Model the fold of this input.
Amino acid sequence: MAGDNTLTFTDGTFDTDVLSSEVPVLVDFWAEWCGPCRMMTPTVDAVANDYAGRVKVGKVNVDENNGIAMRYNIRGIPTLLLFKGGKIVEQKVGAVGKPDVMKMLDKHLEKTEAVPAIESHQ
Done:
């Protein structure tokens, strides 16, 4: 249940794929039985396509990977967590639209843009 650019994270791959990532990672905590989670799928897939190469986007099925859900105290789904440098920098609980997800990402991407080097005059 993922698009071409939407990854699947598991208890076994989470630390490597998310916490050690060089780029920000958006994680969608979901479950098959959750209606609002299924409503979020097209949004998550669209964001994964739009931000390919700049952000990793993936899903964690909380029923199959409850270790991660417990580690991050996920109590309601869908929950979106944005990780940057191995730490949570943003969180959204409940179904949100694509503009809200983009705003969440853009806020943190602007900070990762390369800053022009300042020449020192010695």
